[in-house]
Design a protein that fits this description.
Strand content: 35-45%
CATH architecture of one domain: 2-Layer Sandwich
Distance between the termini: 44 Å
Number of helices: 11
Structural class: alpha+beta
Number of strands: 29
CATH class of one domain: Alpha Beta
Radius of gyration: 26 Å
CATH superfamily of one domain: ATPase, nucleotide binding domain
CATH topology of one domain: Nucleotidyltransferase, domain 5
Helix content: 25-40%
């Protein structure tokens, strides 16, 4: 068995497998290719996935959700009122019956979601396998400790974890970037239910180098709420009743709005029906895709704003991006896809894999690669690489240029040209670490309106070797700044 690719998201989970060079995204017991990342605890039962989602509107204080975002934090959540910290452990204080409460840790919740993925894998394999190797996709910024905790959750569920891979890397692997396309600049735009990530990756001869990354705590759930509020206004106009005054009624409307949003991803219109929405009154209406896209247009523009920020942070321009990968269930909306694509005029949009399956598919591709070359445990054979935690920049005259991005490997070399205006006056050249000046040298007798050639070597011992020169003056600065990292 080559192994499975698994992605546990805030909103949904997905498991994929490659057999005989054929990709399978495995369906759950309801026939769906993704499983809601929800758990409900009631007095005599626990529900996972779709049954939990169906009960969430009625039992919000008995429901566990947004577990991936909570997994890497040590604080309670303002977004999920049932989340507390008990004895240093973050988890959910759930109502499981009359005057009955149950504390369930986030780690236990993640383990239960892995158990659901294990059930799906077992059903797929027919129970004939002794072990189920897998690769787990995790956020790029997770620490080693967070990755190890996630690994333990999967192992307790029955999997053998070969590797934890970043979501950015698995998104690239889903489209075989680095194999079929050995060299390119790629932007990965992921918008899930409650989180948004934009990553800029340079691919050189199959090697991935993350140039910049931006994360936000907002996502497609806001689009659902906008549609739900629109439906609530229509209901109030018809019946003089406001479903928002009841958490249960508005929860029903949110579920209907989410279902309608999914339908509008593939259809031009959607019929919304909610039985006994408010005070026994049924609600029935139609929503067109054009109306929905008009309602969310402003919010989609806001969700797209980190794209330019990420590109500028990485030192690129929008026209330099070759490939665009869209990830996350919210990106199934054609209007949303087009809004993202419009920000990158020269980029090829890669969307042949369903956006909410991309990460799991890429993880399965990595599992297949490891099986083909005989690797069975990358976690135990990984080589730690020293990195520079802060940004190093050069300021000359009115120009501020990034020399090394945060997490640049040590050692590293960088060469850049900086314009020098001068205007007949001496100007300082400053080396900054996170905007704090660590070295300064005044440049004098330099010809105005020329370029200064700057070379930097980040040495293995942490020292930074600097060389600045110009055509007219020759070498201007040769210095070693000690212990940059």
């Amino acid at each position: 068995m080559k192994g499975f690719g698994i992605h546990i998201g805030n909103t949904t989970c997905c498991i994929a497998y490659i057999k005989d060079d054929k990709l399978d995204v495995l369906p759950n017991d309801a026939g769906d290719r993704t499983t809601p990342s929800m758990i409900t605890y009631l007095e005599n039962e626990m529900n996972v996935g779709l049954p939990a989602k169906q009960r969430a509107a009625r039992f919000p204080r008995s429901t566990m959700t947004n577990m991936k975002s909570l997994f890497a934090t040590r604080q309670d959540s303002k977004l999920v009122p049932t989340v507390i910290v008990e004895n240093g452990t973050i988890g959910f204080q759930l109502v499981v019956g009359e005057d009955k409460h149950l504390f369930v840790s986030v780690d236990k919740g993640i383990e239960i979601l892995f158990q659901k993925m294990y059930e799906i894998a077992t059903h797929f394999a027919g129970g004939s396998e002794k072990e189920y190797p897998c690769i787990i996709a995790v956020p790029l910024g997770w620490s080693v400790d967070d990755r190890q905790r996630m690994k333990k959750c999967a192992e307790k569920a029955g999997f053998r974890v070969l590797q934890t891979a970043s979501e950015s890397a698995t998104s690239l692997l889903a489209y075989k970037i680095g194999d079929i396309v050995p060299n390119c600049t790629c932007l990965i735009y992921r918008c899930g239910g409650s989180t948004l990530d934009v990553s800029l990756v340079r691919v050189s001869n199959g090697l991935y180098s993350v140039k910049s990354s931006i994360s936000r705590n907002e996502g497609g759930d806001q689009l659902t709420k906008i549609l739900a509020n629109f439906l609530a206004d229509e209901f109030r106009q018809r019946y003089k009743l406001d479903p928002r005054e009841s958490k249960r009624s508005f929860g029903k409307l949110l579920s209907a709005a989410e279902q309608s949003k999914h339908i509008l991803s593939t259809m031009n219109s959607s019929h919304v029906f909610v039985e006994s929405l408010c005070e026994g009154v049924d609600f029935s209406t139609n929503v067109s895709r054009a109306r929905f896209e008009m309602l969310v247009q402003t919010h989609i523009s806001r969700l797209c704003s980190p794209i330019q920020e990420c590109i500028e942070k990485g030192g690129f321009t929008a026209g330099a991006i070759d490939k665009l990968i869209i990830v996350g269930g919210s990106l199934r909306m054609p209007g949303f896809q087009q809004a993202v694509k419009d920000r990158l005029p020269n980029a090829e949009l890669l969307s042949s894999v369903s956006p909410d399956e991309v990460i799991a598919v890429g993880a399965a591709q990595q599992a297949a690669i490891m099986a083909d070359i005989g690797l069975t445990d990358v976690l135990n054979s990984a080589v730690p690489v020293s990195c520079l935690p802060e940004k190093i920049s050069l300021k000359v005259d009115l120009t501020d240029v990034t020399v090394f991005e945060p997490y640049a490997p040590v050692p590293s070399f960088s060469q850049i040209n900086v314009p020098y205006r001068g205007n007949g006056l001496p100007k300082p050249a400053q080396i900054c670490k996170n905007n704090e000046v660590i070295f300064e040298k005044t440049l004098s007798d330099v010809q105005d309106n020329t370029d200064i050639s700057a070379r930097f070597l980040l040495q293995r011992d942490g020292h930074l070797a600097i060389s600045l020169s110009s055509e007219s003056k020759g070498e201007l600065v040769r210095e070693i700044v000690p212990f940059v990292r």
